[in-house]
Amino acid sequence: MGASFLRIACLAVPFTCVNFLISYTLQAMGKGVQSAILTFCRQGLLNIPLLILMNLTVGLYGMIWTQLVVELIMLPVSLGMYMHTWRKLK
């Protein structure tokens, strides 16, 4: 189980890196509210409820797939917020 969990978790790493990089970039730009919104959306609105739902429906494997699903959902949201902020700077 551990090996398959690790394989699934590794699929989420590239998306996690991009999402966190955008969040940290927004913080560095002084856009703490936007960064906090992204973090709240990722953890509060998506990750925790999806963990519960996937555990009830799929079981243990569903919980590990949750990270990948959350990161894939948050990627366009993060990129959209970053692009919106970037356009407002010019």
Give a verbal description of the structure.
By secondary structure, this protein is mainly α. Helix content is 92%, strand content 0%. The protein has helices spanning 2-28, 32-57, 60-89. α1 (2-28) runs antiparallel to α2 (32-57) and α2 runs antiparallel to α3 (60-89). The radius of gyration is 15 Å and the shape is elongated. The mean pLDDT is 94.
Helix content: over 70%
* First and last CA, distance: 50 Å
Class of secondary structure makeup: mainly alpha
For the report, how would you describe the main beta sheet?
Answer: none
Q: What's the order of the H and E elements?
A: HHH
Tell me how many strands there are.
Answer: 0
Q: How much is the average pLDDT?
A: 94
**How would you describe the shape?**
elongated
Number of helices: 3
Rg from alpha-carbon coordinates: 15 Å
